[in-house]
Amino acid sequence: MIVDFHTHVEYKNLNEKYSTQEFVQAMDIGGVDKSIILGNDQSDMGSKPSWVDISWMKVATNFEDEDVADFCNQFPDRLIGFTSIHPDRYLPHKKIERAIKEFRMKGVKLYPHSGFYPNDPRLDLVYQKCVELRVPVMIHTGPKAVKWQYIKYNNPTFIDDVATKFPDLEIIISHGGYPWVEEFMAVVYSNENIIVDITFLDYIEEVFKKPRLTEETIKRLIELIGPKRLVW
Q1: 98 or 56, greater pLDDT
Q2: Cis peptide before 179 (omega within 30 of 0)
Q3: What's the rounded mean pLDDT across residues 112-137?
Q4: Residues 171 and 162 sit within 8 Å (Cβ to Cβ)
Q5: What is the C-alpha to C-alpha distance for residues 21 and 67, in angstroms, rounded to an integer?
Q6: What's the alpha-carbon Rg for the chain, to the nearest Å?
């Protein structure tokens, strides 16, 4: 079985996202059996400076739980939803509980570049809830999403605090942590409760002119932690 572990429902124009039918059709063409559909909560894109004009964002960033659930429920045997939370929200651990129990989602996605570190104490209850409900947390690392966000929040070093403090929490680190590749490798190697999502490495390789980044990162990860802790 082939599972695409990191997907976003994109816009095909300024007013319309791709439909579930179009998404699943693309899966069929690509030979993908199941896909993880990631929610997106960046709390009004988080850490937005006062000089930023919100109209610069041509399409909405957030993908709410209700929308994720509606999307996945059309093909429940093919699509698996992940919720997303931001620590600025009121009682984010309660949002997770509702997403898992009511909307039948299977995990949580965090976007630190929207204005928080993964080891923010406000997230402790979130991590505890994920352990209780036995669902994984996927954390973005590496490049930021939009120009006014702060890349410093995406440093994978801070995830070591989380993995160490919550040894029963299953953590998925995305995108290889570039440009903090060495820190990323050390954190992953040092914590057996971390899985690596290698999605987007080819794009990072192209944009940042790093020939063989994808190949070398995957080869090194296999040598360090083995292929069973890699997803894509």
Answers
A1: 98
A2: yes
A3: 97
A4: yes
A5: 15
A6: 17
